[in-house]
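Input/output pair, single chain:
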Amino acid sequence: MAETRQKHIPVMLDEVLENLKPAAGKVYVDATFGNGGYTRAILEKASCKVIALDRDPNVKSRAEELKKEFGDRFEFRAGQFGNFAELVSEEIDGAVFDIGVSSMQLDQAERGFSFSKDAPLDMRMSCTGTSAADLVNNLPEKELADLIYKYGEEKKSRQIASRIAERRKTKKITTTTELAEIIYSVIHKSPNSIDPATRTFQALRIAVNNELQELENGLKGALLRLVPGGRLVVVSFHSLEDRIVKTFFNENSGKNAGVSRYMPVTPVHIVPLIEKCSKAITPTEKEISANPRARSAKLRFAVKKRLERNPGDE
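Output:
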């Protein structure tokens, strides 16, 4: 087991701790528990409490291990971070989100997240509900093309959807390898470039797990539960996620940010709840070299507005 865990390196861990600033006696939420890398680091950094959230039932054994080790300082709550405000009813001093599929999920071939491993075409983080195979085999061709373009930013989405629609007339597409081969028939692999299947698989994963709406809801819930001066740290891995985080932070700090096309139109007048938000922070070359999964990561953090003080207050 220890050998397996070494492969799951928390992305931008030093930067997460630097900007979350864990302190003794405080309460933090790890909204995307996964293999527990951030949770462990926060608990080791300070004598604080961490509440961990995750909708993946496969993480429970790992959560039980940390519970035995850290006792009352650690608590796991099963659920998706889009329901942050319902799962976390108490005030908190900080929260961290690591958006997207976890390295543990990618490494479990049977989950169907990776096109590099032959497996059932699943991609469900919660292991329940509509799967990627359901979408690929049942969505009308135009809807499938639109989904691949919107969430994967794939320029050849229409050709890929057309090829999928043609194939499924004779045989259901049930595995990651089958889907990847269809994509390769439209976009040929070339050395030293991104795998042609990447964008389509990303799009399906986002759609299956409703990730962008979950992210927006999770950010709202976390900001609601933060105490004044509390800190919110988000690590994202592609432009759609980062755009939502940037827009959310800017709008809630009173900046005149453009509304993302992936989010509902936001009212013009928003009471600023954020007093400070960062620009995107990227991983060091050293980290990318040691952990290639970090290469597309971006970290942004925000600080909730402190209570206004009257001139006579100390």
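The first strand starts at residue 27 and ends at 30. Strands lie at 27-30, 49-54, 74-78, 92-98, 226-236, 274-277, 298-304.
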